[in-house]
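Changelog note: in this version the structure field was regenerated for every chain. One regenerated record is shown below for reference.
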Amino acid sequence: MKMKDYINFNEVLLIAIGIILLFPLLGNAQDVTYPNYSTAIKTAVTDPTSQLGSMAQFQYFMHTDMMKKLYSLRGYEPIWINFQGRPAPIATELRRLLLVAYRHGLPADMEQVAVKENGATVQKWTYVSRGYWDRRLEDYLRTATVSPKDVIWFELLATEAFLRYTQHIFVGRFDPRKIDEKIILGPRVINDKTYNALNHAVSNPGRLQELMDRFAPESANYKGLMTLLNYYRRVKLAGGWQAIPSPGVQIEPGISHQIIPQIRSRLKLFGYEMGDLNNQVYDEGFGRALRRFQELSDLENDGVIGANVSKVLRYLNVPVEGRIEQLSVNMERLRWLPRKLGDRYVFVNLAMTEFRLHDEKLSAAELEKMKFKTINGKDVRQTPLMIDEIRYVNFNPTWTVPSSIAIKDKLPQLRADAGYLGKHGMKLMRGQTVVDPMTVDFKNIAEDVFASTYTIVQMPDYNNALGVVKFPLVKNNKAIFMHDTNERNLFKTTNRHGSSGCIRLEKPKEFAEYLLADKGYTLAKINGLVPQNAEMPPGKTFSETLKRPMTVYIQYLTTEVGPKGEVRFADDVYGQDEKIKAALLDPKNNGDF
């Protein structure tokens, strides 16, 4: 929140508080006792015509519906105040919970800063008031004597802060569809089960943080990023890290150079196993860690750092503040997914062009075999973020060219060569009728007329654009699916954002074998059903239904932490990190949707 916005907001709020303090709360304000607190709370959150109810509709209270639901579960009894109208012990727990919201990459009210005292650097907490536990709550907690009106005000303010925190950690801070049309992950619903869990959390003093942490995503991805975020916060407090200069010579095996100790230390900070940090020689251990970093971050895995230009150094030199922001952005993305992803699912990371299978019944070695490369949408034809499902597998598929691709890609080819379709196993269709391309004036036909009149279909073949196996994703209306490809050599490249939106798989037949294993499919059987090279005749087109649908999460994470604690990075090819970062900094996204 900008300082001017914060000041204006507080000015308005203080005026509103002053107005309400001019009116009696419930009859004679001096007669308010504990039994009346429940009545006052109920009035405030259910009756918008009351004085307290009008205040509850003020812009600060954005979660009145959530308040009604939570308080109704507990008979409108107070949560944060006791019989004497003073903060209950759980209010102190709430303060502690909200002040460390930064653990989850959420806004902070207080931050540690390094200051000099008597020649030594010490860490001190500074109030920044941009999160959940603001100064009004803090002042009430520290005030010895308060009026009955203030008691109710504190109760409602504290509940509002608690519910905002709940929504942010459980669902996310904004509706992601509003910042990028390529995100089709809508916000999840807070249902009755969630409210019951919230009531359980606030009804168990001494366990608030433990129970509220259960609202965060359970995935190993999220937990890894959370651990790394808090580690990097400590690194930042210690002064961060300095940029490593270009070496001026190529860093390769056997060379001795003064920047090698700096690279060793940085890789160590990123979780890579390293020996003597002061060793200036490029030895076997250094090379192993460097190649591992290159491999996990999908860089050219040659164990070399360029003399003047190096993507390795570009990744290593992002300031710790930038990495903290990146971690917060990616944790926000993971909150858009279900808290529990399930015992069996596919996770496609678009940023890192990688496919991963999760199945609790498989061993680590079996799962490692099912981790492979993908090719997904280029920056101008991005693959959307979504949750979908596979219900059947197509073998020897045909490919009906989408009209957008037909106009942008195929029509220019046909204008240059009317025989293009025949050379690539394609047919020109008008309805159900095959049309001879030589009879069509492609050079003069308008694009919209071409798209509305004709359809291009590629016949089954080893060189079909979809390859020999297709995995339809049945829930989206964007014609996005996963498939084999006729450009299998592209998986050897590091730049794999090259499709028109669909996801090409490096190991499609192995994935089909896994999905259909309970129906007797083996890799050998699949190889007998589809052509193995361009010389073999096409196989029969058919579909096989899965006994159990497979959930597919298509996400976009530009940083991850591996099971061994090794950090990996990816370029923000889609430019989505910056959009999310801007949304997280927008004051209106500290409220609700």
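Spot check on this record: DSSP finds 21 helices and 17 strands in the chain. Residues 148-170 form the longest helix (23 residues).
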